Amino acid sequence: MATRLTFFSSIFLVLLTSSNLVSSCVSPAISNHTFRLDCLCGPTHPPYAIPIYVEDVDLLQFAENLEYLEADFFLYGALGYGLDVVAPNLVIEGPPPIGGMKANLDNLMEGIITEFAYQEVGHLRALLLTVGAIPRPQLDLTSCNFPNIFDEAFGFQLDPPFDPYANSLNYMLASYVIPYMGLLLAGLLGVESGQDAVIRMYVYKRANITVYPYNHAVAEFTNRTSELRNRLAMCGIKDEGIIVPPELGAENRTSSNVLSANAYSISYSRTHPC
Ligand SMILES: *[C@@H]1O[C@H](CO)[C@@H](O)[C@H](O)[C@H]1NC(C)=O
Ligand SMILES: *[C@@H]1O[C@H](CO)[C@@H](O)[C@H](O)[C@H]1NC(C)=O
Ligand SMILES: *[C@@H]1O[C@H](CO)[C@@H](O)[C@H](O)[C@H]1NC(C)=O
Ligand SMILES: *[C@@H]1O[C@H](CO)[C@@H](O)[C@H](O)[C@H]1NC(C)=O
């Protein structure tokens, strides 16, 4: 399972300071069967609000690591503090992230990222109740960790190093980097892909803007980041930038690519290598 997961987790791994991801992924933590989602009006069968298959548990625990990353990244970005303040019982004694900080967001984005952050907290609650608790991995949210990703995406060093917390646009480009996964959990998928769409819409509206102080437009940042993801996944196109040649657009007719999808406008799966 661990090797299968690494196909699409390479970017995520960059944000981890240690390799404890792999051991947490295979940890046999199983759900606390006495502690069910409080679901008074929902169906009574299956007993959990989110039905899962046993073979998905590893994958979902990997997802949990990703949710930790998203929760702390968004919480810090919007509020300046993370899960240790907002929901300390959810971190299962995992170490606090290194270097998280409040981003210099405008009011609109601060509101949206706050909402994303609390959505991730909710997802963590749901995952902890359904697939069991794993400790939060050591996350490195220092601003100097993101430049590595963008440098790798561009194939050379951006000068000065990319600062994800400098302004709303940089923060959204950094958010674009976080791999949104096509989770098997439909309930999570809806909100996660909604977040993805908001992020893509934000950067799409600014497609032609040059990212200060670099000589590269927003569209190129997304193209390079998506190319990097495809390279790391090693199985063709899994992700596309916001502007693409028409042969990658909807029905071979659009260059705009607000939503990333295949030739039939079906979402790319990111849960399996191919
Ligand atoms: C399961 O969850 C309940 C409610 O939080 C708690 O009281 C109980 O101790 C847990 N059981 C185990 C085995 O962790
Ligand atoms: C970007 O520039 C191209 C070429 O000038 C133009 O066709 C396109 O509409 C612009 N896109 C956005 C989102 O502004
Ligand atoms: C990046 O842009 C190039 C040139 O338009 C295009 O061929 C390629 O498919 C794009 N890649 C992604 C992942 O969007
Ligand atoms: C789009 O172009 C590809 C070749 O680039 C072709 O195989 C496919 O049938 C085209 N789709 C449509 C809807 O025209």
UniProtKB/TrEMBL annotation:
The keyword Signal applies. InterPro entries: Pigment-catalase-like. This is Desiccation-related protein PCC13-62. It comes from the Eukaryota. PROSITE patterns: PROKAR_LIPOPROTEIN. Pfam families: Ferritin_2. The keyword Signal applies. Residues 1-24 form the signal peptide. Keywords: Signal.
